[in-house]
Amino acid sequence: MNEELLSRFEQEGFPVHRIYEPPAAHAVLGAGGKPENDLLLANLAADDVGYSYRRGGGGTVVLTPGQVVLALVAEVGSPFRNREYAAEINGWIVESLSSLGVAGVAAEGISDLAIGGRKILGTSIYRRRLALFYQASLLVSCDLSLLSRYLAMPARVPEYRRGRNHEEFCTTLRREGYPLEPADVIAALEKVVSVRLPGLR
Predict the structure, then answer these.
(1) Burial letters for 40-62: b for 16+ Cβ neighbours within 10 Å, e otherwise?
(2) Partners of 107 in the beta sheet?
């Protein structure tokens, strides 16, 4: 979905990013995902919702309107340190949300962000030598029932999930009392990412 960013980076040699609200529902599997295990395929077919694969790890997600996706590619100094890079970029997101008055955002699991122990952001990283390809989806005002409609319960889950289903485990900024629109979040992220990204090392 954001594969062209990797091609642009390799052609131009400069960090590139995109921040956007998905225009329609679409399921995305990680590199090791299996549609028959990870998705409720009958529901996807009934609603004419498609799915695709992305480069990198992480679980299967459903992108929908009301979310904000951040995708970026940059050259970094180490072929390792993925958790550190994810934490640094996630910090930019926390900074952006703080500028909008959102409080209590904390790191959970390997590279999630949560409010009150409920997930608001998941990430995926793909590496090609020193190129870091990071993707994340932030739940702003989306319909969480679509997660339960299209996603099976994953086989591997972070400890902080504590057996909760999708709608109990996840939350949105709107549900947490922040009446923000995706456009508000996109503008705040753009201000921070455009400044921080060139210095990612």
Answers:
(1) eeeebeeeebebeebbbbbbbbb
(2) 113
* Other Cβ atoms closer than 10 A to 176: 17
pLDDT band at 2 (very low <50, low <70, confident <90, very high): confident
pLDDT beyond 70 at 1: no
Over residues 125-164, the pLDDT tens digits come to 999 889 999 999 999 999 999 999 999 999 889 999 999 9
For residue range 100-118, what is the model confidence (pLDDT) as tens digits? 999 999 999 999 999 999 9
Task: Report the C-alpha gap between 82 and 88 in whole angstroms.
Answer: 10
Longest dimension (CA), the chain: 46
* Torsion 41-42-43-47 (CA) sign: positive
pTM of the predicted model as reported, rounded to 2 decimal places: 0.96
The full set of domains in the chain, from first to last, is 3-199 (3.30.930.10)
Neighbours of 159 (CB within 10 A): 7
What contacts 7, CB < 8 A, 6 or more positions away?
A: none
What residue has token string 């951040």?
Answer: 70
Q: Is 162 left (phi over 0), alpha (psi -120 to 50) or beta?
A: left
